[in-house]
Design brief:
heterodimer; A: alpha+beta; Aldehyde Oxidoreductase, domain 4; six-stranded mixed sheet; B: 167 residues; alpha+beta; Ubiquitin-like (UB roll); DNA polymerase, domain 1; 2 domains; 5 helices; 32% helix; 15% strand
Chain lengths: 827, 167
């Protein structure tokens, strides 16, 4: 394995083995469930079996009487001593009352109604069975469009199920439709609900310590600085008294951002139990029914204008997002999609009417590709079906409509700046890897035999490093804008180089990549650097944006690390210049016989890190007064250079970097079983300068598996009364080693001008496989009169559409108007 | 819903077993799962719980030479058995060749599924020294990984097999 610098020069860009492996491979990872504390209690939730019901009574007496039970908490008890959680949405959404346990009404199946705390997990299970809850069933609302009719209202205070509505309009949409050669009308498309289901469930250990009235958390929340803002106002405890620590996290993919309600219950239960620590370990079924799902979205009455060459000139559409029973992180998703408003395409005229509704389903939360993937899938379906309708080959259609390489940095109609990219080049690399012409020939031969083979392209974006000012587009009073990340770099007393970052990685290799960055600054081996990852509010490196989410560590995290390392280096230079009696220009950094050191080039004299640290920390009488500000302990906060967006126009720079992905799939639908099978698959990625190639490649594969799973196997299914039918892995079927095809990986690099290293945030991957598989299935089934109108397609759904003609009929859902202008295409 | 109160005490049963070469004896409730026994009684926290229903394999351990999902095995069923868990793979601090191969091939990200995958790989290579791609996929069909998309795990297992043959 390569344990060498890239080109013999730099650690950044080298395929350095991960520092994390030494503990993870031995089973010595430090996961939240591995922690046991003195006097620890165990918490179990009592959950609503109904999707929508009034809570008539909660009888906890039998549970409380069971020996070993410390206490039982109900929603009414919590409501009496706390404030509802912050609601981000404006207007009626401000009147939604969200408590961590249902108070008067349960609004989704699995919503926690009471919490039981006992000496052991098994006892807590027993006691939870003894809590008697009487319910009166109410009409469940299982569809966002139904919800908007307000026939059955979820939140009485809000008096409507609509959480948010806004219109994005740029250019001259109607003129573009008047001038169009082709107009394609699409009645309805639907992006399904799924979750990337991290393998480790949520875990919280919370203690409300009466000794100092602080709350201590050890948990696996993946955005703790967001969680503490919600917890502080809810619990009425100052933020500085809430300590959150995370260590190794077994995946999050965004889902663990929204574990703050359970964190609140653990603290309140601990308080009631006299300050004993309370541990809650979520079961898989609890995770499936009540942690968080990804946003479900319906696209209605879409109109697309194209010129006679097949260039899209305008899109007009209505998007309805389903956020489940409580908005929580929402309605931020109502604006986050607009980071990629035109996708990878050049059209300038567009009107998107966006609405979000509550329904009696599990609340949604950010899930890998959050809010952008739904929109990108929509755009890819639009481009793809228009190409089929007009009769333009899929690859040519993309090339006609892609933003061109020479147009970067590209200003989108809504004021976003795409930093860099080369989509035609990615298509070229992808076609070569898959053997495009060869597959085209095979496809033609197979079709002649009656086989259903399709080839699909998906081009997508992974926008990273958010401008939180976009929250003001959904609520002008939201007190958020910009983005920042903190890091600390120091020489400890014996000269050890120690780096701390405000991230909480879940497998992204931050310990390794941060060490690579610092190694280059100081000219030492990454093994000489200790990186403390995992979050700790008392480490004092975080900012209000710290956490690990939204494809940004390579930009925000590593920029902070780089800044802190440079600050340390500058201090080391000042000190070494004094000790070695030379100018700073004369100094060089490297490793000598006594380890890492700073040398005077002119005299050859050197001082090692121990020597420098010794003077500052334990030998400070030799430090001259003018250097009293040198601490060799340097905190640096990196800030993204954002402005507050124009709220009225919904216009501004919403993200800093745009990684791009181009996938190609070849698929076959079996004529007898209707099983869709992947015959060949290519993933081409461009995330600018790569810090550690195998780490990036690994995350591309991971995102690809999540996307393939979501496209073909994984769906959160509810029946008409709100029972979740996929509440175990055996029902949900996360993709396995048997289902996952071999992926051919390709790479293109267009360095970002917006980050110090040229790197772009990556990892979410834009859900490229969902777009790609939809396109490939469309290609396979177009001639059969099928419109791929849903992001989820398995043998069952294809059977219904293809054999039983239930829904998804092209002739019913898609209408092409060909105008006089279409005649005489230039090509 | 049960109308009657739970029995206040549940009779505990003695379990004696060997884990990673060391013998343990504990009194446990009959309902205690093997994975709980390993994690809570023996503090061997390398074996993880991911799904509770035998799907994901994060809890895979070797029991008398055969891999089992310890989340759906009762501790009492392991009475008298010999177990191997992830903590028993390294020898005198040196990584087992399978562990080394997973590291070299970047076969893990968050590391939560890794202990189970290492044990499944161990079981595979004990029975098949030259696995092909299909054998490898089949051997880890019961191990879910959410981070890697399996690609580097396939490479890691192939590498472990190749190294073993080369050794």
């Amino acid at each position: 394995m390569a344990d060498e610098k890239q080109n013999g020069k730099r650690w950044v860009g080298a395929s350095l083995p991960r520092k994390e492996e030494s503990r993870l491979l031995r089973g010595l990872g430090k996961f939240a469930d591995d922690i046991k504390l003195r006097e620890m209690l165990y918490l179990r939730f009592v959950r609503s079996p109904y999707a929508h019901a009034r809570i008539v009574s909660v009888d906890t007496s039998a549970a409380e009487a069971l020996p070993g039970v410390a206490c039982v908490l109900t929603g009414a008890e919590i409501a009496a001593q706390t404030q509802p959680f912050i609601e981000i949405g404006p207007g009626p959404a401000q009147n939604i009352k969200d408590y961590p346990l249902a108070v008067t009404r349960a609004r989704y199946q699995g919503e926690p109604v009471a919490a039981v705390v006992a000496d052991s997990a098994a006892l807590a299970d027993d006691a939870a069975e003894l809590v008697q809850v009487e319910y009166e069933a109410l009409d469940p609302v299982m569809d966002a469009e139904d919800a908007l009719t307000d026939k059955s209202i979820l939140h009485e205070g809000a008096a409507t199920n609509q959480v948010w509505n806004g219109v994005w309009e740029f250019g001259d949409v109607e003129q573009a439709f008047r001038d169009a050669a082709y107009v394609v009308n699409i009645d309805r498309m639907h992006f399904h609900r799924f979750s990337s289901t991290p393998l480790e469930n949520n875990v919280v250990i919370g203690q409300w310590d009466p000794k100092d009235e602080h709350i201590y958390y050890q948990c696996n929340n993946s955005f703790p600085s967001f969680a503490v803002q919600f917890l502080s106002s809810h619990l009425g405890v100052p933020i500085d008294r809430i300590r959150v620590q995370t260590a190794d996290i077994g995946g999050s993919f965004g889902i663990k951002i929204t574990s703050y309600p359970q964190m609140a219950v653990c603290a309140l239960a601990s308080k009631k139990a006299g300050g004993r620590p309370v541990k809650w370990v979520e079961s898989r079924s609890e995770h499936m029914v009540s942690s968080a799902h990804g946003n479900e979205r319906t696209f209605r009455k879409t109109r697309v204008a194209l010129d006679r060459d097949g260039v899209i000139t305008a899109i007009d559409s209505h998007h309805i997002d389903d956020c489940g029973a409580y908005p929580r992180y929402e309605p931020l998703g109502c604006v986050i999609w607009s980071q990629v408003f035109p996708g990878v395409y050049r059209f300038k005229n567009a009107r998107i009417d966006f609405t979000q509704a509550v329904t009696n389903k599990c609340p949604v939360g950010p899930n890998r590709g959050y809010s952008r993937m739904q929109h990108l899938w929509f755009l890819e379906r639009v481009v793809d079906i228009c190409a089929h309708q007009i009769g333009i080959p899929a690859d040519e259609m993309r090339l006609k409509n892609y933003v061109r390489p020479e147009e970067f940095p590209y200003l989108t109609p809504n004021g976003c700046i795409y930093d860099s990219g080369n989509y035609p080049k990615m298509l070229e690399v992808g076609k070569k890897l898959i053997g495009w012409d060869d597959w085209k020939a095979k496809q033609a031969a197979a079709r002649a035999e009656g086989r259903l083979i399709g080839i699909g392209i998906g081009t997508t974006l992974d926008s990273g490093t958010n401008n939180f000012g976009q929250s003001q587009i959904v609520n002008p009073y939201a007190p958020f804008s910009g983005n920042s990340q903190g890091a600390n770099c120091k020489l400890d007393i014996y000269g050890e180089v120690v780096v701390a970052v405000g991230s909480c990685p879940q497998g992204q290799g931050h310990e390794t990549t941060a060490a690579q960055v610092v190694a280059d600054v100081l000219g030492i081996h990454p093994d000489k650097i200790t990186v403390r990852t995992g979050f700790d509010t008392e480490r004092n490196v975080h900012t209000g944006f710290s956490g690990t989410y939204a494809s940004q560590f390579a930009v925000s995290g590593l920029s902070a690390v780089h800044g802190a390392a440079q600050k340390l280096k500058a201090e080391m230079k000042r000190l070494a210049g004094h000790v070695l009696e030379t100018t700073e220009d004369d100094l060089e950094f490297g490793s000598g016989e006594q380890g890492p050191e700073v040398r005077a080039k002119s005299t050859g004299k050197s001082i090692n890190y121990w020597g420098l640290a010794n003077i500052v920390n334990v030998n400070s009488a030799v430090l001259p007064e003018e250097m009293y500000d040198v601490t060799l302990n340097c905190r640096y906060v990196w800030r993204a250079p954002f402005k507050v967006p124009d709220k009225e126009r919904k216009y501004g720079q919403l993200t800093l970097t745009y990684a791009s992905q181009l996938h190609i799939a070849v698929m076959e639908v079996d004529r007898e079983t209707f099983i869709p099978k992947i015959l060949d698959y290519v993933a081409v990625d461009d995330c600018g300068t790569v810090i550690n190639p195998p780490i990036v490649e690994g995350q591309v594969y991971g995102a690809t598996a999540h996307g393939i799973g979501a496209a073909l196997m994984e769906s959160c299914v509810y029946d008409e009364v709100g029972n979740m039918l996929t509440s175990t892995f055996s029902d949900y079927i996360p993709i396995t080693a048997v289902n996952m095809p071999k992926v051919k990986y390709g790479h293109v690099c267009t360095p970002s001008p917006h980050s110090y290293s040229g790197a772009k945030g990556m990892g979410e991957g834009g859900a490229a496989p969902i777009h790609t598989i939809s396109a490939a299935l469309q290609d396979a089934l177009y001639a059969s009169g099928v419109f791929i109108h849903d992001s989820f397609n398995n043998a069952d759904s294809i059977f219904r559409v293809l054999a039983k003609k239930e829904g998804g009929q092209l002739a019913e859902l898609v209408k092409l108007e060909k105008r006089a202008q279409a005649n005489g295409a230039t090509k | 819903m049960p109308e009657t109160a739970m029995p206040e005490t549940i009779e505990k049963i003695s379990v004696t077993l060997k884990v990673n070469g060391k013998e343990y004896q504990r009194l446990v409730e009959p309902r205690m799962l093997l994975v709980e026994f390993l994690r809570e009684e023996l503090d061997l926290t390398g074996t993880h719980v991911g799904c509770d229903t035998t799907y994901c394999g994060a809890c895979t351990v070797l029991m008398n030479g055969a891999s089992v999902k310890s989340c759906t095995t009762f501790a009492v069923q392991a009475d008298g058995a010999e177990l191997l868990t992830v903590e028993g793979l390294a020898h005198n601090g040196e990584l087992h060749p399978i562990q080394k191969a997973f590291g070299d091939a970047y076969g893990l990200q968050c590391g939560y599924c890794t202990p189970g995958l290492l044990i499944s790989t161990y079981q595979l290579l004990e029975h098949n020294t030259s696995p092909n791609e299909k054998d490898i996929r089949k051997a880890i069909a019961g191990n879910t990984c959410r981070c890697t998309g399996y690609q580097n795990i396939f490479k890691a297992i192939q590498l472990a097999a190749d190294n073993r043959k080369g050794a």
